[in-house]
Design brief:
alpha/beta; binds zinc ion; Urease, subunit C, domain 1; TIM Barrel
């Protein structure tokens, strides 16, 4: 009988799973193991009750390896819908703290980007400013809030204007930005008095802030200056080695360096961590401890530099074949103009330097986390062969390489992101009263993070057949269930169509 109920329950799920999908008066996810992201270990089987978009009950219904105690199960209401999740894992929806909604040069439209994100369980993104107009960004944010489009929640930051010359101008700009409905500011650096005024004013208004400390301004203002002024978080890693310098004040640029030449920029960046104070030295410890005491957050975006240490791997990732748009593939090709396409002559020497750069960077990140510092998960996809959604999972794997425990990684990808956005009372963990932003997956991501890739993980089954397992099954946002695999199929259809229209075949650089 229960089987029949489940069968019936599945029918409406597939109907409701797409655009204009709806919240249910009651939705029960039955029998899963949950990873709730509070730091608790996995626990199951549990039934999760969702009313509209709120988690209202998390009921323990038994023990592993024992039939579920039906008496303990929450009752299905008259208009309720249930999904059998036995054998599955449920985690909070992922939060990508560095998510550009496509870009003009990349030719990636919002629908394509959103579906790649949602198919990978990403239910919230922080848009750090990009090529979208402010109005379009807010329109997308509102549509996502109303769930009239398939899209993650959008936390819309604005890029701080590079034209501002004085503290007064900075304060005016910040007030205006708040008035326009922005959620925060992303800085690239500015003169110190301007940075100080803008960060202070923004904080006074209750908005959030982050920065990519670009090399052009980093000598006078590094991450430590930002943290002391009240900046919430930093992107990538620039400005951190500079705060850690103990035997220089300016990066060791070669005489022929030109910032506008991206091979120079990225090649020399790969030698930067080596110029910082040694791990666990007094200065290294002091900087780390001060950043933590200031409640400063790091959004490292490890994945976006991975091609620097292994161009072949990033370029040949299997998902490019089916899910990378021709326009995006063209953007990634070696170019003196496209941002992040710095493969003018990228070889063994550059990759080896970057491997060492990663080692030092990861050592800092892991220890920062161990001492209580907050690290979030951001992807910065759409550049450097990193594809939306897939790159977020790669970021998780790189945090693992840095030394994070898989449970610490899930927390970084969910609750930590919610905290830095000031949304941890609403999202980021599976707790009573929080919004129902959830991921259902049939494999255990703690055992193998690769199961989170849309293309799944490779596994030899008991009959010695090569199979794929995993890929998110359902992404639930605001209590609305989306069939994640169907969303990914829709992305493939978009890519197929774009290729057909252009007669395009993905080719490797320099090979005709
Ligand atoms: Zn970015």
């Amino acid at each position: 009988m229960r089987k029949l109920i489940y069968l019936l329950a599945f029918v409406p799920i597939f109907c409701f799973s797409q655009i204009n999908g709806k919240q249910h008066e009651q939705l029960i996810l039955r029998g899963a193991t949950i990873i709730n992201s509070t730091g608790a270990p996995p626990l199951g089987p549990v039934d999760i009750v969702i009313e509209k978009n709120i988690i209202t009950k998390i009921q323990n219904v038994g023990y592993p390896g024992v039939p579920i105690n039906e008496n303990r199960r929450p009752k299905l209401s008259k208009n309720g819908v249930e999904i059998n999740c036995e054998g599955s894992y449920i985690l909070p929806g992922f939060i990508d703290t560095h998510g550009h909604i496509g870009g003009r040069s990349q030719g990636a439209n919002p629908e394509y980007v959103f579906k790649l994100w949602m198919s990978h369980g990403i239910t919230t993104i922080r848009e750090p400013g990009g090529s979208l107009s402010h109005d379009l960004k807010l329109e997308l944010k509102n549509s996502s809030e109303k769930n009239t489009i398939v899209a993650p929640r959008i936390i819309a930051f604005s890029t701080f204007s590079s034209r501002i010359k004085s503290p007064d101008e900075a304060r005016d700009w910040v007030k205006d930005n708040a008035k326009k409905g922005s959620d925060g500011i992303k800085f690239f650096g500015a003169p110190p008095d301007v940075m100080q005024a803008a960060i202070e004013e923004n904080k006074k208004l209750g908005l959030r802030s982050t920065a990519h400390h670009a090399q052009l301004n980093v000598v006078k203002w590094n991450v430590l200056n930002s943290a002391r002024a009240g900046l919430n978080s930093m992107e990538h890693w620039y400005g951190l080695p500079e705060a850690l310098f103990s035997d220089r004040i300016i990066q060791n640029y070669p005489a022929n360096y030109n910032y506008q030449n991206e091979q120079h920029r990225f090649e020399e960046a790969g030698k930067l961590w080596k110029q910082a104070a040694k791990p666990y030295s007094e200065h290294w410890n002091n900087v780390m401890n001060e950043l933590i005491s200031l409640d400063f957050t790091i959004s490292p975006t490890l994945n976006i530099y991975e091609a620097s240490r292994d161009l072949h791997r990033a370029r040949r990732a299997e998902w490019h074949d089916d899910y990378t748009l021709p326009s995006l593939w063209g953007f990634y090709a070696p170019s003196r103009i496209s941002h992040g396409s710095y493969w003018h002559y990228w070889g063994t020497e550059q990759e080896i330097a970057w491997k060492e750069n990663y080692r030092l960077w990861m050592t800092f990140l892991n220890e920062f986390k161990n001492r209580g510092g907050r690290v979030t998960t951001g992807s910065d996809s759409g550049y450097i062969y990193q594809l939306y959604g897939f790159a977020f999972v790669r970021e998780l794997e790189l945090l693992r390489e840095a030394g994070f425990h898989p449970l610490e990684i899930i927390q970084s990808a969910t609750l930590n992101g919610a905290e830095v956005l000031g949304l941890d009372h609403l999202i980021g963990s599976i707790e009573l009263g929080k919004l129902a932003d959830l991921i259902v997956i049939e494999e255990n991501p703690l055992e193998n993070l690769k199961v989170l890739y849309g293309t799944g993980a490779i596994k030899l089954d008991t009959n010695n057949n090569v199979t794929r397992v995993g890929g998110v099954k359902y992404t639930i946002k605001d209590g609305i269930v989306y069939d994640a695999k169907k969303l990914l199929k829709e992305v493939k259809a978009m890519v197929d169509l774009a290729k057909k229209e252009a007669g395009y075949k993905i080719k490797q650089p320099g090979i005709n």
